[in-house]
Amino acid sequence: MAAVTDLPFRTICEEMGVGLTITEFLSAHALTEGAAKTIDKLTPSLHGRRFGVQIFGREEERMARAAEMAVDIGASLVDINMGCPAKRVVAGACGSALMREPALAQSLVRAVRSAVPEHLPVTVKHRSGWDERHLNAPEFAVAMVEAGAAMITVHGRTRVQGFSGRADRAVIAAVRAAVPSEIPVVGNGDVLTVDDYFAMREQTGCDAVMIGRGALGNPWLFRSINERLQGRSDPGRPSCDERARVFDRHVDYISAHAPPKKLVHELRKAVAWYTKGLRDSAGVRERAFALMDPLQVKTIAQKYFRDLSQLGVDSGAQPVA
Ligand SMILES: Cc1cc2nc3c(=O)[nH]c(=O)nc-3n(C[C@H](O)[C@H](O)[C@H](O)COP(=O)(O)O)c2cc1C
Questions:
Q1: Structural domain contains residue 194
Q2: Of 73, 118, 211, 305, which is least surrounded by CB within 10 A?
Q3: Same domain (yes/no): 112, 32
Q4: Spatial separation of the C-alpha atoms in residues 197 and 294, rounded to whole Å
Q5: Do 30 and 173 have their domain in common?
Q6: Any domain includes 235
Q7: Residue nearest to atom 7 of ligand 1 (CA)
Q8: H/E element holding 114?
Q9: CATH number where 56 lies
């Protein structure tokens, strides 16, 4: 996720047991032009953990070269974004706009496939279609597989929907049914809880689930899912103390890896994620967003968690909107 799945965020999710993380989508054009801001986001996971790199574009040559850059930093897979609904991306006929140009989309998959060593998967993420009248996800997915995609992720919304409404699980099920069984299909959209995870698996037959927004400030979701998958009970949301500890660790990663100019901004984002839904979270966010000193931002959040803990508020059980 753009401006979310940077190294610190991915690391925290990895520590909580996520199976695989994927970088923010990176413009093949920017990467191949040597744009420092984009190249800085091309970061391998720590400690040799597996990670994917997602790229977007519509020029075969640039996509192939961007994929090689991903391989050079040790990516375990290269994912092609054909789902982004953002105006500036679609205006360049990239992202979800490619769902209206399956032949070009196929040529991009072929170009990336031939640039990446055979043992590394090239994968595609797309939406249910452009709009309600063009729900072409099943045939589009099959076309991508024919071009060389080794895995398909489907977000069950159309481009026109953006992030509104609900992700349609029937479309994901239709993709699963259409694509050869040896190709994994990943279901995506609106998985916020452990129950959502199992409902997605059961209702679509998908082989895995991609979680985006549900992990913001709640990396414990991966721990809960893993525990349930192992047949154990869900440990649930964390206590305030545990929340504070993981927030601190996330802040440490941000402090070590964020560009100095973006440090305060990144810390404020973390405050917003980890306090969302808790008592007086709007107050702590307001105070944090007024501060310019990174240390003060960190301190104010730590104090907030300490106060909650002393009040005996369980950060998981009593979310207050
Ligand atoms: C802030 C934000 C940034 C996103 N950036 C990307 C991206 O770079 N690549 C991508 O494939 N999807 C991106 N998405 C879409 C999510 O990956 C996901 O498909 C969508 O949010 C639905 O899943 P969710 O309900 O689990 O979040 C982004 C979503 C959000 C909210």
A1: yes
A2: 118
A3: yes
A4: 36
A5: yes
A6: no
A7: 1
A8: helix 102-115
A9: 3.20.20.70
Is 2 contained in some domain?
no
pLDDT tens digit sequence for 16-68: 999 999 999 999 999 999 999 999 999 999 999 999 999 999 999 999 999 99
- Exactly one of 84, 94, 206, 240 is catalytic; name it: 84
Closest atom of ligand 1 to CA, residue 1: 5
In short, whether 83's Cβ falls inside 6 Å of ligand 1 is: yes
**Residue linked to tokens 């999710």:** 13
Q: Is the minimum distance from the CB of 273 to ligand 1 under 6 angstroms?
A: no
Q: Which residue has the CA at smallest separation from atom 23 of ligand 1?
A: 189
84 is catalytic: yes
23 φ, ψ (degrees, to nearest 5): -60, 170
Which of 172, 199, 229 is where one domain is finished? Answer: 229
Place of tokens 């996720």: 1
Distance 273 CA to ligand 1 centre (A): 15
Cα 89 from Cα 245, distance rounded (Å): 37
Q: Which atom of ligand 1 is nearest the CA belonging to 215?
A: 26
Ligand 1 pocket check for 189: Cβ under 6 Å? yes
Position 315 confidence tier, pLDDT thresholds 50, 70, 90 = low
Show the domain range for 117: 7-229
Locus of tokens 């992030």: 163
pLDDT in tens, 74-93: 999 999 999 999 999 999 99
